[in-house]
């Protein structure tokens, strides 16, 4: 049920805008949609709609501006493992709860099934290359390249990873036709589109000490930036030599977000068991600069939090693991606003909190204690900083 003022005027207002009657009374929460089950995959946006799946196999499509439900369908006895949206269609990879089999489904934007086909493995992660219409689904040992430009077809490949407990944890696009697969122990495989045959394993030189990948890898300007248990490790994609970034705090599973306009990484980190925070590190090729960091007590952990940022309102923020929204000035790190109203926590890794096209609203997946989808006004939060 969507919580908003009852009445024809309020409904028309909600349909025209994501603005409530009073943002002050809700501390910036524009609207929220209560859900029956936790969100396990998403949130994905195409600029007009929000798409996600819950733990019961239901797939939702909501209007971004109004918060009204556009479509919903149920995949019985299925767990949604990966999903994307391309060309007006939803593409969903599932695993069957009864026999573990996997399927690739295509649905239109109204929730009407267009096709289904067998899929060879359960993906742990996925990434869409919207420029080519290729959808990459992968687990630690294998990956599939799914062509979405016509009726979906796919080819599968093996990464060729060896070593007990090792596997591909992050898959990131580089320049031109290169993709990089990064393993748990920070090994790198180079894959060349469009063939993808025989991924080339690269020996990364210069790694001293123990680095285990804890989150995603980021590619920028011919370098890979790896979030690890011992800080950020930088790898040159021309020489495949590594260098210490100078950022040595363990990176949490929330990971890193790349702000291209600001040429920096926002990093969720843990100094120790009782000290956590978010840092902004400028990218300088084989090194990182440290414009600011905001250290928080363990009360405000960032283990399962989606970092978001708005260039329009010069803000960066997250929903912390205690259930409160924290907003900072993205260039100085100055605290702008922290909500005093309890919102709830994500309580799930791998979820995303997308912004709208204006950078005014962020859409937050909340799973605990009561699942819901929340539209929050970053503009309102930043206005509080100037009061």
Short description:
The protein is mainly beta.
Describe this structure in words.
- The protein is mostly beta strands and 387 residues long.
- The protein has one domain: 7 Propeller (Methylamine Dehydrogenase, Chain H).
- It is built from three helices and 31 strands.
- The chain has a four-stranded antiparallel β-sheet with strand order 2-3-4-5, with no helix packed on it. Strands 6-7-8-9 form a four-stranded antiparallel β-sheet, with no helix packed on it. The chain has a four-stranded antiparallel β-sheet with strand order 10-11-12-13, with no helix packed on it.
- A hairpin with a 4-residue loop joins β22 and β23.
- The protein is globular and about 60 Å long.
- The two termini are 34 Å apart.
- The relative contact order is 0.11.
- The N terminus is likely disordered.
- Please outline the major beta sheet: 4 strands, antiparallel
The name CATH uses for the topology is: Methylamine Dehydrogenase, Chain H
For CATH, the homologous superfamily is named as YVTN repeat-like/Quinoprotein amine dehydrogenase
- Which strand-content bin applies to the residues? over 45%
Unreliable residue runs: 1-21
Radius of gyration: 21 Å
CATH architecture: 7 Propeller
Separate helix tally: 3
Number of domains: 1
Measured between the Cα atoms of the first and last residue, the distance is 34 Å
- Give me the count of strands: 31
pLDDT average, as an integer? Answer: 89
Ordered list of secondary-structure elements with their pairings:
Blueprint: H1 8-16, H2 23-26, E1 29-34, E2 39-45, E3 49-54, E4 58-63, E5 69-74, E6 78-86, E7 89-96, E8 102-108, E9 113-119, E10 125-129, E11 134-138, E12 142-147, E13 153-158, E14 168-173, E15 178-183, E16 188-192, E17 200-202, E18 213-220, E19 223-228, E20 231-236, E21 242-244, E22 251-259, E23 264-272, E24 275-284, E25 287-297, E26 307-310, E27 315-319, E28 325-329, E29 335-338, E30 361-366, E31 372-377, H3 378-385
Antiparallel strand pairs: 1-31, 2-3, 3-4, 4-5, 6-7, 7-8, 8-9, 10-11, 11-12, 12-13, 14-15, 15-16, 16-17, 18-19, 19-20, 20-21, 22-23, 23-24, 24-25, 26-27, 27-28, 28-29, 30-31
